[in-house]
Specification:
The complex is a heterodimer of chains A (about 170) and B (about 600). Chain A is of the alpha/beta class and about 170 residues long. Helices cover about 30% and strands about 15% of the residues of chain A. In chain A, strand 3 and strand 4 form a beta hairpin. Chain B has about 600 residues and is mainly alpha-helical. Classes of the chains: A alpha/beta (about 170), B mainly alpha (about 600). Chain A: It is found in: Mitochondrion.
């Protein structure tokens, strides 16, 4: 869809239009061309910056690399042909992620991976060694029981610890 | 050798996360982590039960009752029998008693079932509210409990041992019992069993006589309780046994069939009947067989306890252990009696006392049959069992076998205490495998026993005692330097070990033997600063090593140091240095002075 505006030479254009030709003589006209907006994709992407921001592998690779260089953070069968409940699983996942993020405050080294095996929900988390082990065990027992009661299914946590976040590159 | 279906010797216990930071390395850490995980679970349960409205949505197909919130609070407030039953179900003893009193005051009759339920509740909990996990104890209750706890002496293993509830005079159970319109067998049974449980044994027998006078027959549970109380109410062994026989006869008359717990109570009572116990216990076992009741592990435990009294090790030779082990070999047991869990640790204690390694292997094999590993008990019982077994192995078996078991058991099943590590060092010494010491030292450090000075001293003296090949001496020297660093500064919040003269001597000899002259020299200087006196043998060793490197300056210093400690061997040392080394005139004069001065002073 193009619209053209001209400041001068209106009469000339109208005269030409009556003749039936579509010759546009650009003698001193200025036009403004506007198209539909096509924005840059910003989903899950951290843009290049000064070079002092550390990124993990998960953060550094963009979503179109999922399936090629990245794995999935949430594994369930809801998206298979003929299976239902994908939206319910997604909502549960979001709740679980926020719950873990809040409960293990400042301790997560990377995104939480959620796997569903049969009836069981397995939450695999990578933690930093900020809390002493007994506090970590307290929170693990608490999370497992609370989420089990909430979702009426067994919830297990598999935790691995790191000393610092694993930096993949700096952007 | 040890293929439990759940046990992998390199992995932590299944309740822990599989991560090196989160794996417990000592028994204290094991307890701490497992308890903190448990308290996290209890905190979550508390929150779930306090806010049930968020957890009501039930989309589990089929319904899972244990994941729904529990009602812990009382709902029914008005005075009625339903309220009474609710309080009984929620185990609120005081509230139930109050409700009952209110019902009686209001004049309503309470059904006999409800009153019996109430009596059962009071007798089970000894007229106290059971300790709720999420509520702190009320002030007055805690005070009373503390007083009774202080009165109890002896080894208090668990917190529950501290809380000893005693059957008080004129408590609610007796009061309500007297208020009952008709007292049936069930009521008497509850009262008698409560009395026996909480230590009022004489009263229990009086109540039983009461019951007989009212022409009621007791049930099997009452008889079990009375048999277990019988040793408490009579003094002499023969009297105790007569009372028990009397009870058994009455049981027969009242046509009450005994069950497994009866026989177990019988055997347990026999343990306190002295010399006539042995014959009677065998009779009891044959009775059990005749009645077709299979003995449980508790029965065998009591039999072993009767035949092997801990205080008198060789009172009449007996091989009852072998007979018991042949009897139980290959059988699976389930928990039928609370005393079942004592079997394995007592059997292992007997093997240890009689130094019978074959029997110990048989006992251990029994653990591997079916689900018998459940009968080992809690982690404390397990540590006792494995501790005794490891002790026996270190004493009796060749070092290769010991090391194989060491890899299997430690640390996945058992965290040895310092005594256990000393046994291991002893075994290494006996079989001449002292080259393993640096590895064992690493394990000792990991287990947190490196602050036990006698263990460290023994380790050092074993290293310093004999001459070994150069590679071994090298590894010993590295180990000795590691030990030295422990003495110098503590790890984290722990205090450094105190230097002892023997420890310093041993470390120095090890360093000398590995030709680490500079570090050995530093150690010698350390003697002065820490105010410890080196031994004469050490000086000899130093002299020998200095001779081999032909260093007159050091030789001089050695003699001077020896003089400063006023060692009696100084003049001899000075003489030998004068003869053996090429010295300057100045040095010669100093040495001859030392030679003379110490002679003069003697």
């Amino acid at each position: 869809m193009a619209a053209s505006l001209s400041c001068r030479g209106v009469k000339l254009s109208i005269a030409l239009a009556r003749v039936g030709t579509s010759i546009c003589v650009n003698s001193g006209t200025r036009t403004l061309h506007v198209t539909a907006i096509c924005c840059k994709n910003r989903a899950a992407r951290i843009r290049v910056g000064k070079g002092d921001r550390p990124l993990t592998y998960e953060q550094a690779l963009h979503p179109h690399h999922i399936g090629h260089r990245k794995g999935w953070l949430s594994q369930h069968t809801g998206n298979l042909q003929g299976e239902g409940g994908a939206s319910d699983r997604t909502v549960e996942d979001m709740f679980v992620r926020r719950f873990i993020f809040g409960t293990f405050h400042n301790c997560l080294a990377n995104e939480v991976v959620i796997k569903r095996r049969g009836n069981m929900l397995v939450v695999c988390a990578l933690m930093l060694q900020k809390l002493p082990p007994q506090k970590l065990y307290f929170l693990i027992g608490y999370t497992e029981t609370l989420l089990s009661h909430f979702y009426k299914c067994p919830v297990k946590m598999e935790v691995q610890t790191l000393a610092d976040k694993a930096v993949y590159k700096y952007l | 050798m040890h293929n439990h279906h759940f046990q992998d010797p390199t992995a932590p216990h299944y309740m822990f996360q599989d991560d090196p930071y989160l794996t417990p390395r000592t028994s204290a850490e094991f307890k701490l982590y497992s308890l903190s995980q448990e308290s996290g679970r209890m905190a979550a349960n508390h929150i779930v039960n306090k806010n049930p409205k968020f957890f009501q949505k039930d989309f589990a197909e089929p319904h899972i009752p244990c994941l729904m919130p529990e009602t812990m609070e009382l709902c029914i407030e008005e005075v009625s029998e339903a309220a009474l039953l609710e309080r009984i179900m929620l185990r609120k003893v005081k509230a139930a008693v109050d409700m009952y009193d209110q019902l009686l005051q209001a004049g309503t009759t309470v059904s006999p079932d409800a009153s019996n339920d109430l009596l059962d509740l009071i007798c089970l909990y000894g007229d106290r509210d059971p300790v709720q996990d999420d509520k702190p104890e009320a002030e007055d209750v805690a005070q009373e409990v503390q007083e009774e706890g202080r009165r109890r002496k002896g080894r208090l293993r668990r917190a529950s041992d501290l809380v000893r509830i005693v059957w008080r005079e004129n408590n609610n159970a007796e009061r309500i019992f007297n208020l009952l319109p008709e007292r049936d067998t069930r009521a008497y049974s509850a009262l008698i069993r409560g009395m026996v449980k909480y230590g009022a044994h004489v009263k229990a027998f009086n109540t039983y006589t009461d019951m007989l006078n009212n022409r009621l027959t007791a049930d099997v549970h009452t008889f079990n309780a009375l048999i277990s109380a019988a040793p408490e109410v009579r003094e002499r062994y023969t009297e105790k046994w007569d009372l028990i026989v009397d009870l058994l006869n009455q049981m027969n008359e009242q046509k009450v069939k005994p069950n497994l717990l009866t026989f177990n109570a019988l055997l347990k009572a026999l343990r306190r009947c002295g010399s006539l116990a042995r014959a009677q216990s065998l009779h009891t076992l044959s009775e059990m067989k005749a009645m077709g009741i299979a003995p449980s592990l508790a029965s065998f435990d009591h039999v072993l306890g009767i035949f092997y009294k801990a205080a008198s090790p060789s009172q009449g030779q007996t091989d009852i252990l072998q007979e018991v082990m042949t009897e139980v070999a290959g059988r699976t047991f389930v928990a039928q009696d609370p005393d079942d869990v004592n079997f394995f640790s007592s059997a292992m204690r007997i093997c240890l006392d009689t130094k019978d390694i074959e029997a110990a292997y048989k006992v251990h094999d029994l653990l591997r049959v079916g689900e018998n590993w459940r009968m080992l008990g809690d982690s404390f019982q397990q540590s006792i069992y494995y501790g005794r077994m490891f002790n026996l192995l270190c004493m009796m078996e060749h070092i290769d076998v010991v090391l194989k078991w060491y890899k299997e058991l430690i640390p996945s099943l058992y965290y040895p205490n310092p005594q256990g590590m000393r046994d291991l060092l002893q075994a290494l010494d006996t079989d001449n495998r002292l080259d393993m010491i640096p590895q064992i030292w690493k394990d000792i450090r990991r287990m947190g026993h490196d602050n036990k000075s006698d263990l460290v001293d023994e380790l050092l003296s074993l290293m310093a005692r004999d001459k070994h090949s150069p590679e071994i001496q090298e590894s010993f020297a590295v180990c000795a330097l590691d030990v030295k660093s422990l003495y110098e500064q503590g790890q984290g919040a722990r205090m450094a070990l105190e230097w002892t003269a023997t420890a310093m001597t041993n470390i120095t000899s090890v360093l000398l033997a590995a030709q680490k002259k500079q570090q050995a020299w530093d150690m010698l200087k350390l003697f002065k600063t820490k105010n410890r006196v080196p031994s004469e043998e050490l000086m000899e060793e130093f002299l020998a090593s200095i001779k081999s490197s032909n260093d007159p300056q050091h030789a001089m210093e050695l003699v001077q140091i020896s003089a400063s400690f006023c060692l009696p061997s100084t003049p001899k040392l000075a003489e030998r240095v004068l003869q053996a080394f090429e010295l300057s005139e100045e040095q010669k004069t100093i040495l001859s002075e030392l030679e003379v001065s110490t002679e003069v002073s003697e």
